[in-house]
Structure formats: structure tokens, C-alpha cells
Amino acid sequence: MEKAELNALDSYFTIEDNQVCLNKGVITDSDGMLYDNGECTDVQLPSKLMDNFGGILCLPDGVFFLGDRDYGSRLLIRNCYLQLLDLTKKDSKEGGPARSGYAITGTPGIGKTYFGLFILFYIRCIYHKATVIWNDQNICYGFSPEGNVQKGDVNQFEEALENPENFYIADALMMKKYPAYKILLTSPKVERFNEAVKWPGFTKYFMPVWEREEIITLWTLQYKNKKNNEGEELTFELLGALLTKWGPIPRSVLLKWDDKSYQQDYDS
Fold first, then answer.
1. Could you give the CA distance from residue 226 to residue 18 in angstroms, rounded to a whole number?
2. By the 8 A CB rule, do 85 and 217 touch?
3. CA distances for 128 relative to 26, 102, 106, 145, 187, angstroms
4. Concatenated DSSP letters of 14-65
5. End-to-end CA distance of the chain
6. What is the full per-residue pLDDT of the chain (268 aa) written as tens digits?
7. What are the residue ranges of CATH 3.40.50 in the chain?
């Protein structure tokens, strides 16, 4: 792109190494409309950027999602992430099917947890007066509007969960009903979300599987030239072989590429 094509965005981004870097607090919806600290700017990203979208949420070097090195510092923003958020925002309005919350489910290994991490970032940008409670199998975190973070048992955050203006994100857990807006990230196992979808105003959405091009983009960004302790490399040829075997499932072709026990599960 020519620099002149981006002049209207000058207040919202910088260019570094030929990358368009949105400023802190600036986020886009699936149409490319920019929001600055929750307020619509009426400025859109050019369609050629959105049509070939390769957005990445980058944390500072040495900073990891939820403080966990295994989650890394970068997250590929799939188009379906933005589309799902637009859909849930529309459905969460008064009288809508998701007015009290929703579950996100789909094929195991496609990155529902990472979508949850993006939701966490999205809420902080759009609803910056809300407290967000994140609960997974390891621990519970409370993110306050002032920027403070507490961790502990979910019972410590009962007061925040009683406020319908706040958000409760549960990852791979049986969810308890609270007045806070509820988001459940779950496998397709019916027992995980069956009770929740009976609640008034609570529905479920299915995350689509990855496109092959999305997998290749993620490999290029985070796994290219990656080697294991034995010096084996996740080459493009090996990635192709894993895609042929498993299909476009990030856990199977990227995260577990060198886990021999996991890969042998395919044969059995």
C-alpha cells in the first residue's frame, strides 16, 4: 500500500517494519471500523488490509498472556474472532438470545482458549469500566478497571460476579450461574454446556475450523525454524504432512508437532 492510502488513520497507528501497528486502546471490528477506548471513530481500515487480514495481538517482549509462558506473547486474530464478537454483541442486546451470556464451542484443539484471551483484550478496550473475572482449571483472575489484577479462588470474586455490568469468562469448566455477563469456552461435550444453554438469554456459537492459509500464517509468525530438544525442525514440508494427517487443527499440527505420543494417537 502507498502511505497516502493510510493518511486518514494517522491518529490511530504507527508503521514499524512495514507493519500497521494500532495504538494502545484502538481495536477494529470485522468491517475494519476502528474504536478508540470504546468509542467509534468513524474511520475504517482500507478494505485491502481487511481482505488479507493477518492481524496479531502483540504483548511486550517477556510478557505472556495470563503470565503463562506456554500461552506466549502473540495471538493471531482470525477473521472469525471479529465476526463472532460482532454477532455476540448484536445478540446480547435486550431481548436477544445472548443477553445474559453465551458458550463458544467447536472442534477440540482449534484455539477456543486463545479466542477467550482475545475476548479478554476486547472487553478491556470496549468496556473499560467493567471488571473481568477469568476462571480456568488452574486459577481465577480478577481484572479491575483501574488495571489491578488479583488471583485466587472464584469465591474471592463473588461481589464482582454479582454485578451484571461485569464479565465472567470460564475456560473448560462447568459454569455456575451469576448475574455477571457469562462467556463459556468449552469442548463439544454436551455435559459442559447443556445446563447453561437452558438459562434464559444464554446461547451457544460454534467456532469454525481453521483455513489452511491461516495455519500457514501462524506457522510463519511463530513456528517457522522452531526446533525441539533433539534438533528436529518444524519445516514447511513437515507442516504439510501434519496438515494432511490431522487437517487444520493448530494443537495437532503446531503445538504438538514433536509430541511422538500424541502423533501416534492418530494411528490408533
1. 24
2. no
3. 12, 20, 29, 6, 29
4. EEETTEEEEPTTEEE-TT-EEEETTEEEEEE--HHHHHT---EEEPPTT--G
5. 49
6. 777 878 878 889 988 888 888 998 898 888 888 999 888 899 888 887 777 666 889 898 899 999 999 899 999 999 899 999 999 999 999 999 999 999 999 999 999 999 999 999 999 888 889 999 999 987 899 999 998 999 999 999 999 999 999 999 999 888 889 999 999 999 887 776 778 889 999 999 999 999 999 999 999 988 998 999 999 999 999 999 999 999 999 999 999 999 999 999 888 8
7. 80-206
Give residue 29's pLDDT: 85
pLDDT, residue 52, reads 62
Rounded to two decimals, the pTM is 0.90
215: its cell numbers:
495455519
Tally the C-alpha atoms within 13 A of residue 152's C-alpha that lie toward its C-beta. 6
- 54's grid cell: 493477518
What is the C-alpha to C-alpha distance for residues 268 and 257, in angstroms, rounded to an integer?
Answer: 17
- DSSP letter for each residue of 181-207: EEEEE--S-HHHHTTGGGSTTEEEEEP
Can you tell me the distance from the alpha carbon of 85 to that of 48, in angstroms, rounded to the nearest whole number? 21
- What CATH number has the domain spanning 80-206? 3.40.50
Q: Determine contact, residues 241/253, Cβ cutoff 8 Å.
A: no
Q: Is 150 helix (H, G, I), strand (E, B) or coil?
A: strand
Dist CA 32 CA 228 (whole Å): 38
CA 76/CA 210 separation, integer angstroms = 12
Contact 216, 76 (CB under 8 A): no
Q: Residue ranges of the alpha helices (H) in the chain?
A: 47-51, 79-91, 112-126, 158-161, 190-193, 212-218, 236-246, 250, 260-267
